[in-house]
Design goal:
By secondary structure, the chain is α+β, with helices and mostly antiparallel strands. The chain is about 35% helix and about 20% strand. It contains 35 helices and 43 strands. The strands form 11 sheets. Strands 17, 33, 35, 36, 37, 38, 39 and 40 form an 8-stranded mixed β-sheet that branches. Strands 7, 8, 9, 10, 11 and 12 form a 6-stranded mixed β-sheet that branches. Strands 19-18-22-20-21 form a 5-stranded mixed β-sheet, covered by helices on one side. Strand 23 and strand 24 form a beta hairpin. It is elongated and about 155 Å long.
Length: about 1300
């Protein structure tokens, strides 16, 4: 539709619509004519109401608006120029606006509504085809649309189009479909912050989101390239206004399905046709350059740091490769760049340097062969991201243009592996071998050629084929083919070998042979891996069977794989005592900290090094006993602080144990006392038993007797009953009239300490101990020890359990003093009672009741219960205590007070039957301890009792006060000849060299499986400790050897840093490979991964042979130095060794891999030549662009300089005019002005491109006229259209 047609029919699109509009116009004319014929009287206000007047005004207003629109539609005929803006609205809407019979504008708005611009476009905002519009449209001028929208309103975005001249017909028409530009940006998107979680390792990450598409921009063909850039700047980049000439460049590209961001390398190498828009076209319309219809891809290049990115890229890549020979030279350069340490990433850097310099791996990634084998859908892989990241890093490391920088940062690679492995996500030190193993597996899965893995059952040999070598070879082939059916990649081609594993049942001799793949060969070092610890040995054997020092130090040597049982057997053999008499505890602050017997079931399955740490203080007690008749009770020794003001009692020495016969000694106070004196002698050089006898014998009138009677106790005889008798007296028992039962120390006790309410730190320590030892076996233990420091105030005197008579004899020296004190108190109490009786008043009731304050603690009245019923009372009291114990968690504070008061009052409670208090004093029945009937008594001490010797301070100073008197401070050591010999042998091994062949030989040493690693025998139908032998069946072309220097590689718990002598060239392992088919077993060293340091970490470096120049280099993170001699790589820090099979072929691996490498190299070399050609094309366009920009800048500067000179001359002439005063000088001034004008015109020359004649020079005359002359410079040299492939 031409513009003339549009204006002639008011931009109609159908005959019917034109008729309606003409009818409306004619109606408006008739109304206007009728209104002009009205008389003046008719025009005067009538007697009608104000409402009628208002309606008439609205009618006149609507009429005027319709007349205005009609006039604009008629006046716009044959007007408008190319580029003018027109708007499209519904033809029906315009017809109703002009035709709808209404009285006023308000009614029209109510019935017609606002202009709906959304109804004439589709969901994407595009106009429908002109011949298939659901709603016909009109093209109206901008002025008409502004009037209509201000009167009626608008819904949606106005639809505007520009007027354009049809190049074929020359007619004016509205541009219904402008050009669409798909805008791309040069460069990579900004790095996204990857948010990781603690549970990332359990969920494999999803594939990354697709890249954003290009942004479409619609622009009229009448707009200029300046308008295009300004539209992109404001709508896409949203940046402040910049100089379009200097900060933006537009490239037209011919490529489909490109993302918004296009990397520089992809733009240069992967996009075919590309054209740069020069400055000469910035002011030209898009239509003038042949851009008339369709969609165009354009790329915006934004200047960064005063330079365009492509300029820098071209500068660094120009003239790199021009021929195929030059391309081939790239394979013999590079490989000298270090890797920056990002924070404890030396383990990664060293392993990467070794792997990057494997020739086959290097070429496979450098020639981009890996891209052909990416398996992005492998559920065990990583969507190809690990392989892509590794390939990108390899190309950076071997880029010869980057050799001057010294190092590169592997940050992108570190970020990639961190997303897929939580172990390597942070910046903690890790093990290089574990990282290499993970990386090889990740590359294998990303590059696995098998997309659908078949199910394969592992084959086995029949029993009659075990000794058949042919059957074994066939089994190995079957296992290898099954592995290749599921795993086939470049890693499998180069690294994978086979182990032969043989298991033999110790009972039935059933033999099982299997084959398993491996990527790295872990070799044990053929030295003794020992665990050492120094124990304190405390020998509590009876004095008559043991002489000499009772406390000794013993250093123990065990294998690192030994367990707790091995330790017990070692100690039992060395100390020549049954293991049942050995008890091992950890001591801390003179108290028990750990009971290894309690966790025996768990300890027997753990290495001894995990159970006992280096700094643990461990005591081994030798306690001979009879488990059936004896009990073993822990004993602590304590003494009150010499400073009485503090009232602090301290535990000293080490805890001890006393063995008591349950039926004879545990019920006798004297026997317990005797045992404690004997066991306390272990802590001092003083013989306490002899000293005890010496003190007794030194007493005046000493008479030695086996048993003393009551009359031997002169102080007690006056208050005792009975007649004198000889022999054993149950009341006297083993009491001695010359020495009290608490002489030197007081025996204290507490029953079942672990079940009592604990206080303060003891309580929390007990809770911790229970949580630490979940499997509490205390009920079945021979000894119950408190795993916390006992509270002294909770102990009570053991003598309190004795009946009063017997207690008096054991403590006879205190009886008289106590009696005198009681008599004095009795007399005093009688006097007070007499005074109180006189002061009684009449207020006392007849019943003589007394009010007692319930808050006052009154001792309970305890009835005397005969022995026959005391047992039931004891049971009742025990039940009450048990109830209190069960409720102690719910009512902790109250029950603690209750339990305390209960035990505090035990002296007033009736004693339990069978105790020494229940045995009547019967002097007429003399008997010995063996037949005294004490075996029927309740014992004073049980297996749940804890004893404490509270030492008198004076006696303590005499026996333990000086350091030379104690035996627990300076402890002598037991000689261990076997350990000393082994240690000397080990030191010789450390100083001597061990050959790598020794390590390979030790690899095949048979070993017996441990208790926690049993093998299920299919013949015996049981788990057995089978004998396992692992042999090397076959090896890969790249042999990675892991020297097992760490006992626990993850924690670096121990390191063996002896020197392993490994060959640089000619490692021959043919005698250690079981496969008879594999004969080429000679390898040459290509890389070494080193570890320096010891426990807790260290530092990794790499010594690598660069196959591109055949020189050795030392890579210490970012620092790279050359190694003069290959022998320098043999150090005691060698951890991983990389060997390459010696071969006459150029490449190793499978035939398929060799073919791919050769073909990939040729394609890569040709691609380098093609890339250089692409760079040259871009460089030429950029060069011409720069030359034109430089000329333009010079011209702008020249114009500025001419303008500045003009202003200076004008100012100078003005000053001269003001100074001249004479008429003669004025004439000279006029003459000077004319000359100045002529000179100024010469300086005002400008270059203007006029039409197609670019060699025109416009000369500005003094009279203001412009004369066009020929220019001596052909401006086409610096101005013109797009260069080389321009639009």
């Amino acid at each position: 539709m031409t513009f003339n047609q549009t204006n002639d029919q008011v931009l109609t699109n159908s005959h019917e619509s034109n008729t309606d509009i003409q009818t409306a116009i004619q109606s408006i004319k008739e109304n206007l004519q009728q209104s002009s014929e009205l008389t003046l009287e008719q025009q005067q206000p009538s007697a009608t109401s104000d409402q009628d007047s208002t309606d008439l005004n609205h009618f006149d207003d609507l009429t005027e608006k319709r007349q205005l629109i009609n006039e604009l539609l008629l006046d716009n005929r044959n007007t408008g120029k190319e580029g003018d803006e027109f708007y499209l609205i519904s033809s029906e809407y315009l017809t109703k606006f002009l035709n709808l019979p209404v009285d006023n504008l308000y009614e029209l708005k109510q019935q017609l509504g606002p202009i709906n611009c959304t109804s004439i476009v589709d969901s994407l905002g595009n106009l429908y085809p002109e011949n298939n519009e659901p709603i016909p449209t009109y093209n109206i001028s901008k002025e008409i649309f502004e009037h209509l929208s201000s009167w009626m309103g608008v819904v949606g975005n106005p639809v505007s189009r520009n007027l354009i001249i049809n190049s074929d017909t020359g007619a004016k028409e509205v541009e219904r479909y402008p050009v669409t530009f798909l805008v791309h940006q040069l460069g990579s998107p900004k790095r996204q912050q990857h948010i990781t979680s603690h549970f990332r390792s359990s969920h494999r990450p999803q594939a990354p989101p697709p890249p954003p598409p290009p942004v479409p921009i619609a622009l009229s063909r009448t707009k200029t390239f300046n308008d295009l850039i300004e539209t992109i700047r404001t709508n896409i980049f949203k940046t402040s206004k910049k100089s379009i000439i200097s900060d933006f460049r537009i490239w037209f590209i011919d490529e489909d399905s490109l993302p918004f961001h296009i990397p520089i390398s992809a733009f240069v190498y992967e996009i075919g046709q590309k054209s740069l828009v020069t400055h000469s076209l910035f002011g030209s319309t898009i239509k003038s350059q042949g851009i008339t219809k369709g969609t165009y891809d354009i790329l915006i290049e934004v200047k960064e740091r005063n330079h365009f990115p492509l300029d820098q890229f071209v500068l660094s890549h120009s003239n790199a490769v021009t021929t195929a020979a030059g391309a081939a030279s790239t394979s013999t350069s590079g490989g000298h760049l270090g890797l920056s340490n990002l924070g404890n990433t030396c383990y990664m850097n060293s392993a990467l340097q070794c792997l990057l310099h494997v020739p086959e791996i290097n070429f496979y990634f450098y020639y981009n062969i890996y891209k052909q084998e990416l398996n992005v859908n492998n559920p065990l892989g990583y969507h190809g991201n690990v392989a892509n990241s590794f390939g990108s890093l390899l190309k950076q490391a071997f880029d010869k243009r980057g050799s001057g920088s010294g190092s590169i940062s592997p940050r992108d690679f570190k970020s990639t592996i961190g997303r897929y492995s939580s172990m390597f996500s942070g910046y903690l030190q890790q093990d290089s071998q574990e990282f290499l193993s993970w990386l090889l597996d990740a590359l294998h899965e990303d590059l696995n050629r098998i997309h659908e893995k078949p199910y394969c059952e592992k084959p086995e040999l029949n029993d009659d084929e075990i000794n058949d070598s042919k059957a074994i070879i066939e089994l190995s082939k079957t296992c290898w083919n099954q592995h290749l059916a599921r795993n086939d990649s470049v890693i499998t081609d180069l690294f994978t070998g086979l182990y032969q594993s043989t298991l033999v049942c110790p009972d039935c001799s059933k033999t099982s042979i299997t084959f398993d793949p491996f990527n790295d060969l872990t070799l044990p070092l053929p030295i003794s891996k020992k665990w050492y610890h120094t124990f304190t040995i405390v020998d509590l054997s009876p004095a008559e069977t043991k002489t000499g020092t009772r406390i000794m130090k013993l250093e123990v040597e065990l294998n690192k794989t030994s367990n707790f049982d091995d330790l017990l057997n070692y100690l039992g053999n060395f100390l020549k005592t049954p293991t049942t008499n050995l008890f091992i505890y950890e001591i801390f602050h003179n108290s028990f900290y750990s009971d290894f017997q309690r966790d025996y079931i768990k300890n027997r399955f753990h290495p001894i090094g995990d159970i006992i740490r280096d700094n643990d203080e461990i005591i081994v007690y030798i306690i001979p006993h009879d488990p059936e008749s004896d009990i073993i009770v822990p004993v602590f020794n304590a003494v009150e602080n010499a400073d009485k003001s503090y009232k602090v009692t301290n535990i000293f020495g080490i805890p001890l144990f006393v063995v008591l016969n349950k039926e004879k000694e545990a019920i006798s106070f004297g026997q317990v006392r005797k045992k404690l004196v004997e066991v306390a002698s272990v802590l001092t050089t003083v013989d306490l038993v002899d000293e005890y006898e010496t003190i007794k014998q030194s007493k005046p009138g000493y008479i030695a007797k086996e048993y003393y009677n009551k009359h031997d106790f002169t102080d007690v005889a006056s208050i005792s009953d009975g007649e004198e008798s000889e022999g054993y007296d149950s009341d006297v028992s083993l009491a001695n009239p010359y020495v009290d039962g608490d002489f030197g120390f007081t025996m204290m006790y507490i029953h079942d300490y672990n079940s009592h309410k604990l206080t303060s730190s003891s309580y929390f320590r007990s809770k911790f101990s229970k949580s630490k030892n979940e499997n509490d076996n205390s009920q079945g233990l021979t000894i119950n020890v408190p795993l916390h420091k006992p509270n002294f105030h909770e102990f009570k005197s053991l003598a309190d359990q004795l009946p009063e008579n017997k207690r008096n004899y054991y403590h006879h020296s205190k009886v008289v003093n106590a009696s005198e004190e009681v008599q004095e108190e009795t007399d005093k109490a009688d006097e007070e009672d007499a005074v109180a009786a006189e002061s009684e008043d009449s207020s006392t009731t007849d019943e003589e009741f007394v009010m007692v304050d319930p808050k006052v603690n009154v001792p309970p009245v305890v009835p005397i219960i005969p022995p026959s019923v005391s047992e039931s009372v004891e049971e009742q009291l025990s039940a009450e205590v048990a109830v209190d114990d069960e409720e102690e968690e719910e009512e902790e504070t109250e029950n603690e007070m209750a339990v305390g008061s209960l035990f505090d009052s035990t002296a007033n409670l009736p004693l339990a039957p069978g105790s020494e208090s229940t045995i009547p004093s019967n002097v007429n029945s003399p008997r010995s301890p063996e037949d005294s009937g004490e075996d029927e008594q309740r014992p004073l001490v049980t297996k749940d009792t804890i004893l404490l010797c509270d030492w008198d301070n004076e006696i303590f100073q005499r026996c333990f006060g000086e350091e030379e008197l104690t035996t627990w401070n300076e402890i002598p050591s037991l000689s261990n000849p076997e350990l000393e010999q082994n240690r000397a042998h080990f030191e010789r091994q450390r100083k001597a060299k061990i050959s790598l062949y020794d390590c390979v030989r030790s690899f095949g040493t048979p070993e017996v499986l441990g208790e926690h690693d049993l093998w299920y025998c299919p013949r015996c139908k049981e788990h057995k400790r089978a004998t396992k032998t692992i042999q090397i069946w076959s090896t890969g072309d790249i042999l990675t050897i892991h020297l097992k220097r760490f006992h626990s590689a993850r924690a670096f718990s121990d390191k063996i840093d002896i020197l392993i002598d490994f060959p640089i060239n000619g490692l021959d392992i043919s005698s250690y490979v079981s496969d008879p088919i594999q004969t080429d077993c000679v390898y040459d060293l290509i890389a070494v991964d080193n570890h320096y340091g010891g426990l807790g970490g260290g530092h990794y470096t790499a010594s690598v042979k660069n196959f591109r120049d055949n020189n050795w280099y030392y890579f210490n993170d970012s620092r790279v130095t050359r190694i003069d001699s290959a022998e320098e790589v043999i150090t005691n820090a060698a951890y991983l060794l990389f060997y390459r099979r010696r071969s006459t072929n150029e490449f190793l691996g499978s035939e398929k891999l060799n073919y791919m490498l050769e073909k990939g190299r040729d394609q890569y070399n040709q691609e380098l030549v093609n890339r250089q050609a692409s760079i040259d094309v871009i460089a030429e366009q950029i060069k011409q662009y720069g030359e034109f920009e430089s000329n333009l800048i010079k011209q702008i500067e020249l114009d500025k300089e001419l303008e500045s000179r003009k202003k200076r001359n004008a100012q100078f002439n003005l000053d001269e005019e003001q100074l001249d005063s004479s008429e003669e000088e004025e004439e000279e001034e006029e003459t000077s002005e004319e000359e100045s004008d002529d000179n100024d015109n010469v300086r005002k020359q400008r270059l203007i491109s006029k039409g197609n004649n670019n060699s025109k020079l416009i000369q500005i005359k003094s009279n203001g006229r412009q004369e066009v002359t020929s220019s001596p410079i052909n401006l086409e040299e610096s101005d013109g259209d797009l260069y080389d492939g321009a639009v």
